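TRAP transporter small permease protein
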Amino acid sequence: MTTTRNATGQEPALLRRIEGVIETLGRAIAWLTLAMMLVQFALVVMRYALGIHSMAMQESVMYMHAVVFMLGAAYTLRHDGHVRVDIFYRRLSAKGRAWIDLAGTLFLLLPVVLFIGLGSLAYVASSWAILERSSDANLPVIYLLKSLIPLMSLLLLMQGIALSIRQVLILRGRLAALEPEHEEVL
């Protein structure tokens, strides 16, 4: 993650608020990976040691994975954990990186996030209208699971706005950017 600070060592309040929400949610969701691993372990033990299979538990692992992926996407973006082909990026100045990040956010991230979010509303609404359930395990949570799509879009939109604000402040010289934490290629 590229971290920025102003002259007083504090980020602007709006950035702290947006990224505070993303950070808190991301850390909370990370604990779900432990639960997911424990349920998967229990499934393996039940199946191979006891000969018992639970379709509901099997689906719950898939649902937990979906929650981690969908609600953790903005956290990953905040920490610059998405795949980036940075052949030139890492060699650029802080302002050069800010221009690339701003352009990528404004012309790629935000339009795609808005497309997904707005495009999913009718899909989610139709699932809620019938209170969609799983056909295999009859778990009554499919409509809740599908609701994660616009929620993911909202969180990514919030983080995209925070990234845009941050990059504009870097370009204006109001925030200093620290060097990004990228692995060196040998």
